[in-house]
Design a protein that fits this description.
This protein has 391 residues and is an alpha/beta fold. It folds into 2 domains: 2-181 and 298-389, Zn peptidases (Aminopeptidase), CATH 3.40.630; 183-296, Alpha-Beta Plaits (2-Layer Sandwich), CATH 3.30.70.360. 35% of the residues lie in helices and 26% in strands. It has an 8-stranded mixed β-sheet with strand order 1-2-4-3-5-16-6-15, sandwiched between helices. Strands 10-12-8-13 form a 4-stranded antiparallel β-sheet, covered by helices on one side. A two-stranded antiparallel sheet has the order 7-14.
């Protein structure tokens, strides 16, 4: 990785130890007190002006060098997942039912490493806001930080973040202009009607029949009710109803998610789902209620910032390429990109049959990626706060 290899080599053992410690002590959304404490102490130690409690348990450290007014923000997420770990690692989670199954322990470590490196080299002219965000896993910590005045209190011209990506080879990076991650919507359908004896279906409502028809109809929405040029995923993930083999239930529930890349597609899918539900309710003599929650918007990269992100990756020796497609997974960094131009990068950590994917009980962040992330964050700061970056 060009000169960055030698410059950060002495930092790596301590960073790996930090990552393992964070992995062993995972914390859920808005409860990242220990993690936030480690982050704040580290930032103070290296000379940052530190603010805690931003948007809950968020931490922001600001490092200033020189006299220019160029400003950049770098973000890492800190929270873990509510799931059991099955890695067998010596540094496996000590907190029952909580696990860093998405690599946020690695993201936090890489940004701390970049802060430490920039503090000692001072190869930049301007200010850097190191943003450590709580509650990325479905609890909208980025939105909470933005609503708490993140960019008013810590101004930034652009904001950048990354995510480890098991689908990319180690040493590779990718992003793209425009959509990079999908909007995430959650839906719940509640079906109610007359219950009864299974031997007398003519006296009862078709509650489970309605539920079955809804599942099949919803499955066809993306392929048959959207234009072929549009992309979306609708997945039913939970269906429940009934208590015994000889009882026709009076209630059933269907739960799932929708992923898409524009508000127009979200509007279309929600409208079709409501129309389908109303039609099936009328045909089956049931009452059907649909709750539709849009909890994360699509993550949309600023085109210029996406090119900046790729250039920084190349400068530290990564194989950087424009991603051909966006991912249908979601990311609440979307809220920060709605507030400021910026970009989100995928950082390869290898794949293959022996590498568990994100959110898998056997997943573990790859320590060899730490230097890549430190280098990328550092290059972004040095590139965007140099004299040549003046606008």
């Amino acid at each position: 990785m060009s000169r960055f290899v030698a410059e950060i080599a002495d930092l790596l053992p301590a960073l790996v130890a930090c990552r393992h410690d964070l992995h062993a002590h995972p914390e859920l959304a808005y409860a990242e007190h220990r993690t936030a404490g480690i982050v704040a102490d580290t930032l103070r130690e290296i000379g940052c002006e530190v603010t805690t409690g931003v948007g809950g348990t968020g931490v922001v450290g600001v490092l200033v060098n020189g006299s220019s007014d160029r400003r950049i923000a770098l973000r890492a997420d800190m929270d873990a997942l509510p799931m059991e770990e099955a890695t067998g690692l010596r540094y496996r989670s000590r907190n029952v039912g909580i696990f860093h199954g998405c690599g946020h322990d690695g993201h936090t470590t890489m940004l701390l490493g970049a802060a430490r490196h920039l503090a000692r080299t001072r190869h930049f002219d301007g200010s850097v806001a190191f943003v450590f965000q709580p509650a990325e896993e479905g609890q909208a910590g980025a939105k909470a930080m933005v609503e708490a005045g993140l960019f008013e209190r810590f101004p930034a011209d652009r904001v950048f973040a990354l995510h480890n990506w098991p689908g990319l080879p180690l040493g590779h990076a990718a992003t793209r202009p425009g959509p990079i991650m999908a909007a995430a919507d959650r839906f719940e359908v509640r079906i109610s009607g007359r219950g009864g004896h299974a031997a007398e279906p003519h006296l009862a409502s078709q509650v489970l029949g309605a539920a079955s028809r809804i599942v099949l109809a919803f499955d066809a929405v993306p392929s048959r009710r959207l234009a072929p040029t549009e992309k979306a995923v609708l997945s039913v993930t939970k269906m429940s109803g009934g208590t015994a083999h000889n009882v026709l239930p009076s209630q059933a529930t269907i739960v799932g998610t929708v992923r898409s890349f524009s508000e127009a597609v979200q509007d279309r899918i929600e409208a079709v789902m409501r129309t389908v539900a109303a039609g099936i309710a009328a045909e089956t003599e049931t009452t059907i209620e649909l709750d539709y929650l849009r909890y994360y918007p699509a993550t949309i990269n600023d085109p210029e910032a996406a090119e900046i992100a790729l250039a920084a990756a190349r400068r530290v020796g990564l194989v950087a390429e424009t991603a051909a497609e966006a991912a249908f997974t979601s990311e609440d960094f979307a809220y920060m990109l709605q507030a400021r131009p910026g970009a989100y990068l995928w950082l390869g950590q290898g794949g293959g049959a022996n590498r568990a994917p994100l959110h898998h009980p056997a997943y573990d962040f790859v320590d060899d990626v730490i230097g890549h992330g430190v280098g990328w964050f550092t290059a972004l700061v040095e590139d965007r706060t140099s004299a040549q970056a003046a606008e």
